[in-house]
Design goal:
Oligomer: heterodimer
Order of helices and strands of chain B: EEEHEEHEHHHHHEHEHEEHHEE
Structural class of chain A: alpha/beta
Distance between the termini of chain A: 48 Å
CATH architecture of the largest domain in chain A: 3-Layer(aba) Sandwich
CATH class of the largest domain in chain A: Alpha Beta
Number of strands of chain B: 12
Strand content of chain B: 15-25%
Largest sheet of chain B: 8 strands, mixed
Radius of gyration of chain B: 22 Å
Strand order of the largest sheet of chain B: 6-7-8-3-9-10-12-11
Structural class of chain B: alpha/beta
Shape of chain B: globular
Chain lengths: 339, 340
């Protein structure tokens, strides 16, 4: 704690130039290609992306849970309270997981042991980091379940995962993550497998936990509706690189990167009538990326009203960051040229 | 006239004995579809909306004559689909097709796109090989796939392209009605709009009827003419898509619409002071009352004792049905206390 206070002016988490590579039968794939961001205490950052964007690989590498091989962190630093966790021994890392940062996954069913009662699983999460009596562990587990919004937790303590609804399983997983009082929660698509009404309750729960426990949140999602409801800041990931990052209000007022604008159009279709604006093409094959802007082959702006040289630049050279507002940075050659 | 109609359809699944410890014993039969009546007109797009387990996929399986109803009837062009003889059923299968949620599971990993689209034509004896190949080429063009993509295997395609293949195959026999079970929910967000635009275009060009099963109200808003909202096996609200989505009358429909996260941080709700409790799944079964009552903020005495029938919304006189429109254009709701 003393050390944490001494470093309190530094961000809770700082990721610098993270690179993750996957070795596949058909060659190497750069899943995360130089991602940098930071997260303050109590702050909520949403990392937005589609399949293949590298968002889950980023989240898993922060927890050092990437399957190695085929994955390998090939560069960068992950500083938690100033300490690079990529240098920690596995034993030290185990102490970081759960106690300092915890993770919840998309599929609660896959994260729970099907033949162990949910009560015992939460107790296990408690005793993994604290030397407490069984009775105390049970008390803390019940408390964690209640904080995760499980009604009458004592009655559900002896239930097995298959006896619970999807929403309830998500709550149990949340309770396990909270059991050791982490400062940072990493949530990888926490509502994707849920129905909308259950999703709404989980989003409310995340908002409650942030307020009550000052929890910092790294939310991995593809849904900009969820981002708008939960996050303080957004980082949009495309093919392993951040293409735009901004405070949430600034982002929703006007995303600048054409890919981010396409995502917002798609998200608005859920709540607004009108014609559907489609992003042409598909999510790219990571083996066939251009050396320049990864989005260039699908981009309308690349060819719209520009010179041939400009269009070539998009494909050939990586865009430099452009600050378009306070804390609002975009990696696009066309940013500010075409609005 | 309606193309397909569901008349008081009930489907009960028998109880399964569970080998897992602590499973509820004698949990009983599952009433998946509970007295559902609705119809889809020729060229109409009808969306069934509801959360997982509400019975919408069971309805699709009933409509495709893949399973038999416990009681009630499904008619297609006047004929009872569950009483068809083999030859009638074969003809029915040509006219009613299905697109599943997961294009990976719907395609044979060793079959090239071309061959997957040709297969239904062979099965239904559509012309000599050369005519068939012309037809396949035309179908691929309709769904926006190149001839080169037609020679690929499913794993060499993106999710959106695979869904295009499945749609091309469903269109091969020129059906009158297409069932689509969550047609875009397995696709990336940036690709969904392409597929929805494709479906709208195909429907317009071919006068194709659609039954779209989805939990995604955005999909429904853009593709459906009419919407039926299902809860716990029952149809609780039905009407023109614009009317139901803009001014829902059933508290469940309202809760569904309210739960959709709006992509606008200005519309963010304040964090709750207590952890929001996860509701306990209310028992479903031969309840005499409204099945939504245990979760409903408006529930009163008779909600628990009398089942509300699906009937025209009172006070909807301000929006008279367009001339010539059948009862299908009405906004119906099954609630004792409907409120817009």
């Amino acid at each position: 704690m003393a050390r944490a206070r001494r470093r309190s002016r530094a961000p809770l988490l700082r990721v610098v130039d993270l690179r993750v590579e996957f070795r596949t039968a058909r060659g190497r794939v750069q899943a995360v290609d130089g991602v940098s961001f930071s997260l303050d205490r109590g702050e909520a950052l949403a990392v937005v992306g589609e399949s293949g964007s590298g968002k889950s690989a980023t989240a898993l590498s922060l927890m050092r849970l990437l399957p190695e091989p085929p994955a390998r962190v090939t560069g960068g630093r992950v500083l938690l309270r100033g300490r690079d966790i990529l240098d920690l021994t596995e034993e030290d890392m185990r102490r970081v997981r759960g106690r300092e940062m915890a993770m919840v996954f998309q599929e609660p069913a896959g994260a729970l042991n099907p033949v162990m009662t949910v009560g015992r699983q939460v107790m296990e999460a408690v005793t993994a980091h604290r030397a407490v009596t069984r009775r105390e562990a049970r008390r803390l587990a019940l408390l964690a379940l209640a904080e995760a919004g499980v009604p009458s937790p004592a009655a559900r303590f002896g239930h097995f995962p298959h006896q619970l609804s999807g929403g309830m399983k998500q709550r149990v997983m949340m309770a396990m993550a909270l059991a050791s009082g982490p400062a940072l929660l990493i949530a990888d698509e926490p509502t994707t497998a849920l129905d909308v009404t259950a999703q709404r309750r989980v989003l409310d729960l995340l908002a409650y936990l942030r307020r009550r426990h000052g929890l910092a949140l790294l939310l991995i999602t593809h849904d900009l509706g969820v981002v708008a409801q939960v996050a303080d800041r957004v980082a949009v990931l495309y093919a392993g690189r951040i293409v735009e990052t901004a405070p949430v209000r600034s982002f929703f007022r006007g995303p600048v990167h054409p890919y981010a604008r396409g995502l917002l159009d798609a998200a608005r279709m859920a709540t607004e009538a009108g014609e559907l604006k489609a992003v042409p093409g598909g999510v790219p094959d990571p083996r066939g990326l251009p050396p320049g802007c990864r989005f260039a082959p699908r981009c309308r702006l690349r060819l719209a009203g520009g010179s041939a040289a400009g269009a070539r630049r998009c494909l050939e050279r990586l865009p430099a960051p452009v600050e378009v507002g306070p804390g609002h940075v975009v990696w696009c050659w066309r940013a500010g040229v075409v609005s | 006239m309606s193309l397909m109609s569901f008349e008081n359809v009930v489907k009960v699944y028998p109880a399964l004995r569970s080998a897992l410890p602590g499973a509820r014993r004698g949990a009983g039969r599952r009433l998946a579809v509970d007295d559902v009546t609705f119809s889809v007109g020729r060229g109409e797009s009808y969306a069934l909306v509801g959360e997982s387990g509400c019975g919408k996929t069971t309805l699709a399986r009933l409509g495709l004559a893949l399973i038999r109803p416990t009681s009630g009837r499904v008619r297609f062009a006047g004929a009872d689909v569950h009483r068809m003889r083999a030859r009638e059923l074969f003809a029915f299968r040509r006219r009613v097709q299905m697109v599943f949620q997961d294009p990976v599971g719907a395609l044979d990993p060793r079959q090239r796109v071309w061959s997957a689209v040709e297969e239904p034509l062979i099965l239904h004896g559509k012309g000599p090989p050369r005519r068939r190949l012309e037809q396949v080429a035309r179908l691929l063009e309709v769904v926006g796939l190149s001839a080169e993509e037609g020679r690929r295997l499913p794993h060499q395609l993106s999710g959106g392209q695979r869904q295009r293949v499945v749609i091309a195959r469903a269109l091969a026999l020129d059906p009158d009605l297409l069932f689509l079970d969550e047609p875009v929910s397995s696709l990336d967000v940036s690709v969904r709009a392409q597929i929805l635009n494709l479906l709208c275009r195909i429907r317009r060009e071919r006068g194709l009827g659609l039954v779209i099963i989805s939990h995604d109200l955005g999909v429904v808003r853009h593709v459906a003419d009419r919407v039926g909202v299902m809860h716990a096996g029952r149809l609780v609200e039905e009407g023109p898509a614009g009317g139901v989505l803009a001014s829902p009358a059933h508290p469940y429909t309202q809760a569904l619409l309210e739960a959709v996260p709006v992509p606008d941080p200005g519309a963010r709700r304040p964090p709750p002071a207590q952890p929001p409790p996860e509701p306990v799944d209310p028992a479903r079964g031969p309840s005499r009352g409204c099945l939504y009552a245990p979760l409903c903020p408006r529930a009163q005495g008779r909600c628990f004792s009398r089942r509300p029938p699906l009937r025209p919304l009172p006070g909807a006189a301000g929006t008279p049905p367009p001339p010539g429109a059948g009862p299908g254009r009405l906004h119906l709701v099954a609630c004792h206390h409907p409120e817009r």
